[in-house]
Structure prediction request, 222 residues.
Amino acid sequence: MKNRLKVLRAERNWTQAELADALDVSRQTINAIETGKFDPSLPLAFRAARLFGLRIEEIFHDPALDKDRSSPATEIKKDTYV
Amino acid sequence: MNQLKPPENGYQSRTRANVIRIFRWNGAWGAATLLMAFGPKFLWNKALEFTLLAVGLDVAVGVGMILANKKYIAELDELQRRVQLNSMGITLGVGLIAGVPISVMDSYHMIPFHADIAYLLILMTLTFAISNLYGTWRYR
Prediction:
């Protein structure tokens, strides 16, 4: 899963430690999420979204979902259900 | 720039308090175990009632240590909990995989030493420490 946590944090001039404190996790966890080594749970993703005042999908997104949307199989499926 | 308010009882301070609690309980359990192991010989001349008291104390302090560890794990964040659980899983596996064959070999006198439980404890402690360090390094 990809995320914009690092960009959003940089825009606000927050350090990893400050963001970690605000989300009630360790600084290591913030670093692991930012570098894509660890995907957060849904509750943590919701906390991050609340903190930044954004929707979850504006912070986190699954690249596989983009692929699915552009694949012909998905288009056929869509036509079938519409 | 938006300023973030640091929480009063944040993750870091909670974790620090839990680690200190674990060290105290572990120390107390170590002391209780030493008392149970050496007390009968050196302190009360193998008096049965004192030995039973020492065993009861060791078990009671052991329960306290388990509860302190449980609280520590419960209050970790999700990444740290994953690292701890991975380390525990590896430690349990290594303990079983190494412990059972060595015990069997000992009963058939296939190894030149007695398979003491202390060796298993040392192996499990080392395994936990190494896998914990690896987990921390992996997500650093």
Strands of chain A lie at 2-3, 60-61. Chain A has one domain: 2-81. Chain A has seven helices and two strands.
